[in-house]
Amino acid sequence: MARRSEHLLLRGNIWWLRVRVPDALRPIIGKVEIRRSLKTSDGVEAKRRVRIERVKVEAEFDDARAILERQRDAPGGATPVQIALTEEQVWALATRWFVEQERAGASRPVEIGDEEVIQNLNEDLPHVERFEEVSRTIHQEVDKLLAEAGFLPGSGSVEPACRTKLLRAIHAAMIEREKRLLNRVTGGAAVMLNPNFHGLSAATELKPVAISTVTLADLIKRYNADPTRTAPSSKTKLKQDAQARLFKDVIGGKTLVSAIDREQARKLLDTVKVLPANATKRFPNKKLAEVLEIAKAKELVPMSVTTANSYMSAFVSLLDFAVAEQIIEKNPANGLRLASDGGKRKDKRLPFTVADLTAIFAAPLYSGCLDDGAGYNRPGPNRPRRGRFWVPLVSLYSGMRLNEICQLTEDDIAVEDGADIILIRTDEDGVKRVKTHAGHRFVPIHPELKRLGFLDHIAAIRSKQPAKARLFPELTTASTGYISDNVSKWFANFLDKVEIKDSRKNFHSFRHTFRDGLREAEISQERVRELGGWSSGSTEDDYGSGTRPSTLAREIAKVRYEGLDLTSLCRPNNLNGLAGCPQPLEAPLS
């Protein structure tokens, strides 16, 4: 006969996980054992599910061990972790006690009109109503209730204020029990009953009282460690950390997940609605309350609706995980998000006009500067042709995103079907990233880039650098792990220098400009999506191998910007009489 798993328990026809909590961890976990329904009556399926649940329980034990270790290292030694019961949990425990008492009383019939019994009940009721006279009995009943819920009696694992609420609730239930008994014996309504217990009787169906010890901080830690989630990039990790800090600042890291309700979720929504953009960077040493006061006093512009809703979406996802882990039954934050600000989606980022492009490519960096480092905006004799020179041009004539360009290596430039193309792809090391699935693509090199000498730059890199060398090695990587972040900051300053101050225009405006160029060239939607890495959202995107490189090369060559003349940027061998270009600088750019 097969041996049953020691962690399986059959209750009725449903299998449950049953795990004894190690003695040392009981003050932290707050329970003697952990029981969880496996939601199946099939024994084979139960054995499969119990292994999965056992791993989750072990993760909880590891969290508890870490807490215990911190407590041991803290001054004064370990103190038990105290759980804050919600009002619903207190009432659920009191309801359970009362209904069980009613069931026990129902099995002992009383004789209506029994004078002796009535007299005794009338004499006992005033004593029961005085809390002090039955205090010891109430404490005993509360300890029994908590033990049934998984808490160690007398362990101090429930916050004193919460225990007091439970004591008062059980006391009220005791009084209600005595009054109902008196009314049954007298055959009428001799005393007024407590309306809080209306509808409760021996027939009331009881539900298990789930008291989770998982705090918001615990949940965040468990969520981040969940092996079923895709590991985030370094930049996404920074964003998630900022979101988690705000959740803990607004709601409280020590708040039980089971105690988070709709009101607290709305408190988070109200906070992100008024929180200024980049608050952590702008006010690194300020507490959240102080930041909100400053924002109100100075009437600071809040973060965008899109950013605010990204915080709420992250919070909803976190609580969805808690539901999936059976920590809570439902998500109190579902549907909470700010309404759209009413602005047209396309107006959130504007393309560059021809006047903008003329100003950009007439700046000292392109017409002659001291260098392409700190002296990029100071007129001088040099015309360096490195990353800061090429990246804007490549984006203008390919529609590529900033990071897609910054991370290019020499092997991303290839010849296919007789066309020079740029491969936009990820790598096994995770250094190269592509924003979307549709973003994996190739883009033919535009004839204007060839005229300006882009292929010469690639040839120079290949002649001087090892295989797979970056096309723009002087561009430095930011702390986020993205090369593009530093370039983005630089380009924002660059636009300010050339008097382009519209907040809706930044580097990404090149991509919008390219999209307009595709429209003017009357290129088909299918080829537009292939060139720009946009998805139609249709299953047809997954069919076939795509348009031939030579065909896309002919299409992209149609893109023109009427009125933009970049002839002055050509190298000497492309334009006779133009002043020569200096040797590439070796110092990195920040």
Radius of gyration: 35 Å
N-to-C terminal Cα separation, in Å?
70 Å
Give the rounded overall mean pLDDT: 83
**Backbone structural class:** mainly alpha
**What does the largest sheet look like?**
3 strands, antiparallel
Helix content: 40-55%
Provide a concise account of the structure shown:
The protein is mainly alpha-helical.
Task: Give an overview of the whole structure.
This protein is mostly helical. Helix content is 47%, strand content 5%. It has 22 helices and 6 strands. It has helices at 26-29, 43-73, 87-106, 115-129, 131-148, 160-186, 216-224, 234-251, 262-274, 279-282, 288-298, 305-324, 354-360, 364-367, 387-398, 402-406, 447-452, 454-464, 484-497, 509-520, 525-532, 549-556, and strands at 8-11, 14-20, 33-37, 413-416, 419-424, 441-444. The strands form 2 sheets. The protein has a 3-stranded antiparallel beta sheet with strand order 1-2-3, with helices on one face. Strands 4-5-6 form a 3-stranded antiparallel beta sheet. α3 (87-106) packs parallel to α6, α4 (115-129) packs antiparallel against α6 and α15 (387-398) packs parallel to α20. The radius of gyration is 35 Å and the shape is elongated. It starts with 7 loop residues before the first strand and ends in a 34-residue tail after the last helix. Mean pLDDT is 83; it is low at 74-79 and 574-587.
